[in-house]
Structure formats: C-alpha cells, structure tokens
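Annex B.
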Amino acid sequence: MQFKKIVLCACAAATLAIGSAAAQARDLLRVGTEPTFAPFEFLDTQTKDYTGFDMDLIRAVGQKAGFDVQILNMGFDALIPALMTGNVDVVAAGVSITPERQKRVDFTTPYYTSGLSMLIHRTDAEKFKTFDDLKNQRLAVQIGTTGADKAKDIQGAKVSSFNTTSEAFMDLLSHNASAVVLDRPVLAYYLKNQPKAAQQLTIPPYIADAEEFGFCVKKGNTALLDKLNKAYAELKASGEVDKIYKKWFQE
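Basic amino acid ABC transporter substrate-binding protein: predicted structure tokens.
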C-alpha cells in the first residue's frame, strides 16, 4: 500500500512537471536572412554562428516578444518569397523599406537609417565622385538590393549581379567592374575588416537615397507585427537597442 502511494505521488509529480514545461514552452520564430551583409548579418567563421547587428537585434526582439528564435540561411532574392509562402515568419536581412516591397510584405518599425554609396579603386577617386560619374561604366551589385536598382538606373551602365556581396567585391578587385553600388555601412565594414583591399579601394564621401531598414512579416500578419513592434519599443526605451547599435557601429 505504501509503495502504491509512492508511485501515485511520483506520477502526480511527473504530470505536474510535464504540465509546467508545456506552460513554459515558447513558440518558434523562424527568421530568414542572407548572411553575407556585414555588419548586419554574416557568419562568424570561428563560432559558425550567424552574427551582426540585425542578428543581435532580431534575437533580442524575438525573445522579448516571447519566442525562441531560429535563424535560416537563404539567398537574398529568396527571402520575401519564403516569407510569402510561410517558410519563414520574419525576414531580417538589412531590407530597405520601399513602396514596391510594401505591396508584398509588412514592415516593422524602422530600426536603422542607411544610404547608398559606391566602392571604387583609389586610382579612380578623382574620376568617380557621384553616381552620375558612373555613366557607361561596369558596375557590380548584389541581386535584389536597392543598390542593384540604383545601378540599373545609371545611364549606359553595364551591371553584373551577384548572389553575395563578397562576389561583387571580388569583381571590383579583379578590375572587372569600376564600382560596387551598395549600402554605405556595408562598404565601410568591408574595408575596416579587409586591410589589403582597403589599400586599393575607397568610398567617396557621396551618399544617395537615404533609406530605412525594417524587419518583414507576411502581408496581413498584424498579430506578429504588433508583437515585434511592441518588443522593439520596449527594448528601445530600456536602452538595449542603443547598446546593440554601439556594439556594431561605434566600437
């Protein structure tokens, strides 16, 4: 009889433990990214983890909103289609908020303001000062970016499109292109971390087309959008967003 009581108590305790674990279980937030866009998202070669400003921020926002965050790697041009088909819940990939994209997805509160610039050879510094100077030149871009859109609008430009920023940079270093057109902070981070390339390349002071970055959710998913915006606002108010910003842009 005593043994039966012990078994019953053990079963009851196990049931309570399972119920408690289930109550504490968090929903999974699947985040799509394209990790070649440093310092926003890239693969840390030592830890083999996805890192960067966007990665730190979406993890913080997701956790604040009550989710476990899973990062999924895919090509930049596949991110919005993956969101629309439900293969990911959020896109965090330095995505500029544009009217065309707003027709397809919903954006969170903007979290970063950027601008387009160009990366050129130092020997061309006097020759290429603005985008107008790039007429009839060969340009390298990353597929699906606003930099790619800008390059295609430059009169007579011959545009080579690549899946990753590193391929575009290599095209420039190989003298197959006169410039890479991309977001200025990405260009600056590349030069900061590639001293050999920095000896050959430079970024003119010129900046065009100020643009805001936001996280994307599926069109009409207001429940998730509201959760993410609320979490972001709370992190902003607490100073956590500024702390993450300083880690990547002021160190």
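DSSP finds ten helices and 14 strands in the chain. The radius of gyration is 23 Å. Further annotation is deferred to the next reporting cycle.
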